[in-house]
Design brief:
Residues 111-207 form the Transglycosylase SLT domain. This protein has 255 residues and is mainly alpha-helical. Helices cover 52% and strands 3% of the residues. It has a single domain (70-251), classed as Lysozyme (Orthogonal Bundle).
């Protein structure tokens, strides 16, 4: 019995040693967990905000090594240069009106670059377009009413600088919530969110600079960036009078 018991114990001991060796070896040879890497499409390298190259809208940079983007940006900048415009009227209007617009943008958490929309939309004029859009922010009557402006019965708050800017901020903030991109929010401001969403689904692309849009919307953000450039670096584009950013006291009384 004792001999039989010793044999049994020996067998158990050998099995325990083998199992420990196997477990230890498996632990050593077990592959390390796979590291998840976000691969960036190497075709598009985006700009960094540097003194030499800071072309961007609301800190959302444009691709710098895409020939189509580069060509459109250069063409747009040339189109807005003094050699083509032959006038400093936009700079003078910006100097008067930006001090009214910018604080409202900041109060609503909207990037300051959106102050260039009135330059592109209306040339900082309060006129009415052939389609019926009016004011600095070129609101259509229905959209204006949706965002709290009174239009009709002898009243048109689209022509009121402060109130129309507040309405624009509400609309832009809503667009950003839908697209999660300030650049796309700007494009949607021009083209409408429904049309832009349709193109995003159709093209399976949500980077404005890689999308193919209608002529007006396709250059809209480029125009905003160009306006930003010529206001901030007028001498570079042939303009002589720099935008000072100082308020015009007589204009601060706008309601």
């Amino acid at each position: 019995m004792i001999k039989k018991h010793l044999i049994t114990c020996s067998v158990i001991f050998v099995l325990v040693v083998i199992s420990r060796f196997t477990f230890s070896n498996a632990a050593v040879s077990k592959p390390a967990p796979a590291t998840v890497t976000n691969h960036v499409n190497s075709r598009y390298i985006f700009t960094k905000n540097t003194a030499e190259n800071d072309l961007n809208f609301a800190d959302e940079a444009i691709p710098v090594n895409d020939k189509r983007v580069d060509r459109k940006m250069k063409t747009t900048l040339q189109k807005h240069g003094f050699s083509c415009i032959q006038s400093n009227v936009l700079q003078r209007k910006a100097e008067k009106l930006f001090p009214i617009i910018v604080p409202i943008l900041k109060a609503y958490g909207i990037p300051e670059d959106f102050k260039y929309i009135p330059l592109v939309e209306s040339g900082l004029c309060n006129g009415i377009s052939p389609k019926g859009a009016a004011g600095l922010w070129q609101f259509m009557p229905g959209t204006a009413r949706t965002y709290g402006l009174k239009v009709g019965h002898g009243v048109d708050e689209r022509l009121n600088i402060k109130r129309s800017t507040v309405a624009a901020c509400k609309y832009i903030k809503e667009l950003y919530g839908e697209f999660n991109s300030w650049t796309l929010a700007a494009a949607a401001y021009n083209n409408g969110e429904i049309k832009l969403q349709k193109q995003i689904r159709k093209q399976n692309e949500d980077n404005y600079f890689r999308m193919h849009l209608n002529r007006e919307t396709g250059v809209y953000v480029y125009n905003l960036i160009a306006m930003k450039e010529i206001i901030n670096r007028p001498a570079k584009y042939g303009y002589k009078e720099p935008y000072t950013g100082m308020p015009a006291p007589h204009l601060l009384a706008y309601n």
